[in-house]
Design goal:
The protein is an all-alpha fold. It has 15 helices and 4 strands.
C-alpha cells in the first residue's frame, strides 16, 4: 500500500484564529513557529486584545506605539498594508509620526489584529536576528530575539554586549526606565536588583515555559534558529529523512494549533533532521495551515 502523508493530515483543519495567524506568519517569514507562539504566550497570554497598564503596549505581541509604527513603515507594503506604511513619516530625530489622527488610530489598532500582529512580529524578529548576529558575531537565540522586542534593538545590543563582559551587572542600573515599568523583571520579590545574567536566564525560562504551554515541540529560549533552503525555520537534528516522522510532526503541529493534545512520538519530534522538518512544513503549507 502506498504511503500518503498528506492523506494522514487531510482531516485536520486549523481553527484557532490566533494560532493560524502565527503559523502563516512563520511560513511567510521563516521565523520559527515555536518561538512566535512562545513570545505571544509570554507577551499577551495569546490574547489579541491585550493591553499593558504601564506603557502604550497593545495586542498579541504587545508592541509599543513607536515600535509598531516603525515595523509597519518598514514591512507593511510587503503584506498588503501599504496604505498604512505610506501614512507614516520619520522625523529628523527618527521618531515615527502619522499626521492624520484618524489614520494613526487605525494603524495602531492593527496591533490587535492577529494576522497583522503576527506578521509584523515575525518581520521584527527577522530584522533583529540579522542585526544581533552581525553585532555579536554568533547565532541569535530565541531569548536574544525576545530581548530585542522587550528593550528595542539598541537596548538589546547594549544588554547582550554588557552581559558577555559583566553578567553580574545590575539590570536596573543599566535600564532604569525599563526597570520602573517592569519592576517584577528587574527586581526580585525582596527588592534586590537582578543581574543581567539573572534577567536573561529568567527570560529564557519564561519563553520556554510559554512555548510549552501552547504545545511547542522543542525549547526555544536558548536555541538558535536555522533556516532551511526553502526559507522555513527548521530544528537541527540527525539521522535520515523520515516521511512518516514528518507526517507525525506536521500532525502534532496541527493538533497544537487546534488546541488539542498532540499525538506525537517525543523522541522523533525533539530531534528531527532538517530535511524531515522541512518536509513537515511543506505538508502544513499544502494544507494552508
Amino acid at each position: 500500500m502506498t504511503f500518503n502523508p498528506i492523506a494522514i493530515l487531510a482531516g485536520t483543519k486549523a481553527t484557532g484564529s490566533v494560532q493560524s495567524a502565527i503559523a502563516a506568519a512563520s511560513q511567510k517569514t521563516g521565523i520559527d513557529f515555536n518561538y512566535l507562539m512562545g513570545q505571544a504566550q509570554l507577551e499577551s497570554g495569546m490574547r489579541a486584545d491585550a493591553r499593558a497598564g504601564t506603557s502604550s503596549a497593545s495586542g498579541l505581541y504587545q508592541f509599543i506605539e513607536q515600535s509598531w509604527l516603525h515595523v509597519v513603515k518598514q514591512h507593511g507594503a510587503e503584506h498588503g498594508i501599504g496604505w498604512a506604511a505610506d501614512s507614516i513619516s520619520t522625523t529628523s530625530s527618527g521618531r515615527m509620526t502619522v499626521s492624520d489622527p484618524g489614520m494613526r488610530r487605525a494603524i495602531l489598532a492593527l496591533r490587535n489584529d492577529p494576522q497583522t500582529a503576527s506578521l509584523m512580529a515575525a518581520e521584527h524578529a527577522s530584522d533583529n536576528k540579522d542585526a544581533i548576529e552581525s553585532s555579536l558575531g554568533r547565532s541569535a537565540t530565541g531569548t536574544d530575539l525576545y530581548m530585542a522586542h522587550f528593550l528595542g534593538l539598541g537596548g538589546a545590543r547594549s544588554f547582550l554586549g554588557a552581559m558577555q563582559d559583566s553578567p553580574n551587572r545590575s539590570g536596573a542600573a543599566m535600564f532604569p526606565a525599563a526597570a520602573r515599568a517592569n519592576r517584577n523583571i528587574f527586581y526580585a520579590s525582596n527588592g534586590q536588583a537582578r543581574t543581567l545574567g539573572e534577567i536573561y536566564s529568567r527570560f529564557a525560562a519564561r519563553l520556554d515555559d510559554g512555548a510549552a504551554k501552547v504545545g511547542a515541540v522543542a525549547p526555544v529560549g536558548l536555541a538558535s534558529t536555522t533556516l532551511g533552503e526553502s526559507g522555513a525555520t527548521v530544528i537541527p537534528g540527525n539521522g535520515e529523512t523520515s516521511t512518516s516522522d514528518a507526517a507525525v510532526w506536521a500532525q502534532a503541529t496541527l493538533d497544537q494549533i487546534n488546541g488539542g493534545t498532540a499525538r506525537v512520538q517525543t523522541a522523533n519530534l525533539m530531534r528531527p533532521t532538517p530535511d524531515t522538518a522541512r518536509l513537515a512544513y511543506m505538508m502544513l503549507a499544502s494544507l494552508g495551515a
